Amino acid sequence: MPVIELRGIKREYRMEVKKGSESNDGQSAVVVRALRGVDFSARAGEFVSVMGPSGSGKSTLMNILGCLDKPSAGTYTLDGIETSKSDSDTFAYIRNRKIGFVFQSFNLLARTTALENVELPLFYRRREKNGKRQSVHARKERASAALREVGLHERMDHFPSQLSGGQQQRVAIARAMVNDPAFILADEPTGNLDTGMTLEIMGLFQELNRQGKTIIMVTHEPELAAYTRRIITLRDGELVSDQEVTETRNALDDLAQWKSDHALLAEASSTEGIT
């Protein structure tokens, strides 16, 4: 059974047109068809990238996958829950329990530590499946374990301003994982990072995927999609391609090569300076 299953997903927006404008043509609104009947499914343990040019429907699809928006037509089943007709409370439950979000801008709270940022989804969760209230100690233990998994246990008392961009994104990934979601939804997760940090984060995603985590990553960069295992491509609101990646690149190998190349460049520059 797929973790994610979309069938016939459409999303239309009505855009009001001012009277007297050239595009009015006697109508008070125009309909923008952002998604035009998308079928897509993902099994547990997949690592999928979503690609497409500007205006292709990537952001709209991401909002529907993340239960931030509802489709105009079609069905979206997430981990056995049909979400399309869900009310706002069910949507909030799904976002907290079933989806781990990772954004380009990290979205960390500036005045709270790394540990407290990771604890936040647990605070909103409050109760376990058996109805028992989570203790403060249990929340801290789970948040600490998530930070340990992304290699930041020793920096759990640091504030975001005391962390590098790559470290901040690791905190965001730990926060996304702390509730053991059905899948991680990453939106341009390395957009604010340099090459080295980008490769570190992609290496972390690959390791989490090897451990069985399901990851859906929205990106416009083919170089990043090459680190995933499957690429779906949107164009004009339609899914036009769905391909397995036959030779997935290893991000940590590429990171080691990148560091080696930069060390050689630095050595060459130093030698030139001496002569």
Give the gist of this structure.
The chain is of the alpha/beta class.
Structural class: alpha/beta
Strand content: 15-25%
| Regions with little confidence, pLDDT below 50 for 5+ residues | none
Mean pLDDT: 91
Number of strands: 10
Shape annotation = globular
Terminal CA distance: 66 Å
Strand order of the largest sheet: 6-7-8-3-9-10
What fold name stands as the CATH topology of the domain at 4-98 and 181-274? Rossmann fold
Main beta sheet: 6 strands, mixed
What's the Cα radius of gyration? 21 Å
Helix content: 25-40%
Treating each run of at least 4 consecutive H or I residues as one helix, how many helices? 8
CATH class of the domain at 4-98 and 181-274: Alpha Beta
The H-and-E topology, N to C, reads as: EEEHEEHEHHHEHEHEEH
User: Which CATH architecture of the domain at 4-98 and 181-274 is right?
Assistant: 3-Layer(aba) Sandwich
Task: Please name the fourth-level CATH homologous superfamily of the domain at 4-98 and 181-274.
Answer: P-loop containing nucleotide triphosphate hydrolases
Give descriptors for this structure.
globular; Rossmann fold; 6-stranded mixed β-sheet; 4-stranded antiparallel β-sheet; 275 residues; alpha/beta; single chain; 37% helix
List the helices and strands and how they pair.
Elements: E1 4-16, E2 29-42, E3 47-51, H1 58-65, E4 73-78, E5 81-82, H2 88-97, E6 99-103, H3 114-125, H4 136-149, H5 165-177, E7 183-187, H6 195-210, E8 215-218, H7 222-225, E9 230-235, E10 238-244, H8 251-274
Helix pairs in contact: 3-4, 3-5, 4-5, 5-6, 6-8
